[in-house]
Amino acid sequence: MSLAPSPAALARAGAVLTVDLGAVVANWRALQARAEGAETAAVVKADAYGLGAAAVAQALSRAGCRSFFVAHLEEGIALRRALPEARIFVLHGPNPGTEVEFAAARLIPVLNGMEQVEGWLAFVAGRGRPVPAALQVDTGMTRLGLSRAEFDALRADPARMRALDPQLLMSHFACADSPDHPLNRQQAERFAAFAADLPGVTASLSASSGIFLGAAARFGLVRPGIALYGGNPTPGAENPMAPVVTLSAKIIQIQEMDRPQTVGYGATWAAPGRGRLATVALGYADGFLRAIGNHPDTHPVFATVKGTWKARLVGRISMDLATFDISAVPEDRIRPGDTVDVIGKYASIDALADAGQTISYELLTRLGPRLPRLYRNGDAS
Amino acid sequence: MSLAPSPAALARAGAVLTVDLGAVVANWRALQARAEGAETAAVVKADAYGLGAAAVAQALSRAGCRSFFVAHLEEGIALRRALPEARIFVLHGPNPGTEVEFAAARLIPVLNGMEQVEGWLAFVAGRGRPVPAALQVDTGMTRLGLSRAEFDALRADPARMRALDPQLLMSHFACADSPDHPLNRQQAERFAAFAADLPGVTASLSASSGIFLGAAARFGLVRPGIALYGGNPTPGAENPMAPVVTLSAKIIQIQEMDRPQTVGYGATWAAPGRGRLATVALGYADGFLRAIGNHPDTHPVFATVKGTWKARLVGRISMDLATFDISAVPEDRIRPGDTVDVIGKYASIDALADAGQTISYELLTRLGPRLPRLYRNGDAS
């Protein structure tokens, strides 16, 4: 199976997402170095945050990554086809009745609540031998995971815990991107107490930002997601990760302005007079979030033209279109069919997410299915 | 080809999108009645605003709809497979060099700028006979379309205009959802002048909201999109359209709260004490926009439990998860594996979009590829 879009598909496309797999691998290695001996897994749920789970996971597997996390059973089944040998954890655990599908695809369910634990124990009893599973405990996120009381009740029944035979004990930080938040220390302490009660089982608390919280948050396995894809795991400080994605959109039309006129829906932006505009084939249906265009004064957004010139986003982002002021680009250097980089040199994923009043995680996961994914440096691992 | 997900896929899924094709058809008929003799087309770009272009377009075709609009060539090629006979317009027109693919799939390009016009004329000259195309003119959106001067220059050369032989003349409103905006009347007047200069060619100005602007905006063909899918084309007034989509998410875990504690990322929401929470397998990667959870005081959001009970969204929406307060649901009436309707009786697409500070168009087009689409009443047309 080739993961590359055909030249014809690229010619048809209005916009193309380029994913630098070499940068993904470099980011994974940098996180591995920082994790100092903890196993460094990879979170590839939501189609590797929109970048393509199969291509990303295969590149990381070649680089030595052995454990992967997805959210849904369906994602796990698809990833198993791409990675016959890897450990694949499914964070949501089994919907009632789907336990057998986990075993069939050798997927490790994360058991989040007592109903999932009971369902899994019944399934395992029918099999007559343990089937690998992981256990989530809640340390303060109040989202998924056994409470301390549920965990203690389970632990008080050694036969059941033996039947469960967990491969991994995990929990999740609520505020890891705010290093000074008091909940971080509380969660790490609570998790350490859980882990101490389950000796010999690998423990995992930290995702991307947690890896930067120091040794007390590290435990035996870390599971970065956004940092692999170039998002800043240390908001407020410089981004230590390499950029991974470029989003390039084709120009459909260039318009000469010779008088003041408004641009786009709601007529919210008034062009000052003379100048040139380029309308490109990319819009919020592709994940160029509509809110990115809503705060031009406080959060101006710039596309990159031919690696050199800045072109400012003007007016509202439409469903399938956006318009940029290309007055600064020499007239003979740009024409319809050319591309502008909407994620690129002058707009990181964090900057665009900030302009859209959200986080880079959401920006990436909403990159739409219309965009062909073009992979570079897949052999760099 | 069956469009229905298998029972196994539905059992695996964390959330399911149900599309009422009977409601889509009813909305199309209601718009057709309001359009009073204008041809009523259907805009199915962006995969029919996320609902599935093939299923939606086939249902509308059975109901009598003959003309469809997509944005991209690739979308047109896919729709041609679903609808061998329909007229399919491609709004973005040809990228340079792709003209032959339009003809091969009998797609009608909308020519937006002089470069696309010149490219198409060169292609047609090579063929030796006209190939159907449409022409867009700019009347004040300043996004795509020939300027008045470009249109006049083209018209001054009858041989070129004959070679072009446009099937449709179109333009697009910038402010149709604000009926009192002065730009509406200006655009309608400018467009009427264009249309008068191209007698015998069908003219089209109005999308969903334009249909509600009265006879002066009607012309020969109207092309609704969002109103077909249940979005309100008359913001500020009651929604005249029937709801089309239900989004149901499965409960992974129910947690009992017995003390005050915070919920979710950033610990932004503090549970007051006793109560029950349900965490469901739906998040912003699925299109449950993160911003929907950001304004709980001014824009509380409620899921519908078993058609009866309200469950309030609490804490931030995660990538793959969201948490609802189900304290109002009797304990014996809800358990893990059950679903809650996140788009449903207590949350319309417009209300959710409003909570997320965007528009229903973006909410629908961002419904993610992880969600199986379940179609109902496909035989109602």
Describe this structure as you would to a colleague:
Two copies of one chain form a homodimer. With 381 residues, chain A is an alpha/beta fold. The first copy, chain A, has two domains: 194 residues, Alanine racemase (TIM Barrel, Alpha-Beta Barrel); 132 residues, Lyase, Ornithine Decarboxylase, Chain A, domain 1 (Beta Barrel). Chain A has twelve helices and 19 strands. In chain A, the strands form four sheets. The first copy, chain A, has a seven-stranded parallel β-sheet with strand order 3-4-5-6-7-8-9. In chain A, strands 11-14-17-16-15-18 form a six-stranded antiparallel β-barrel. Chain A has a two-stranded parallel ribbon with strand order 2-10. In chain A, helix 2 crosses helix 4. In chain A, 56% of the residues are buried. The interface between A and B is large, with 84 and 84 residues.
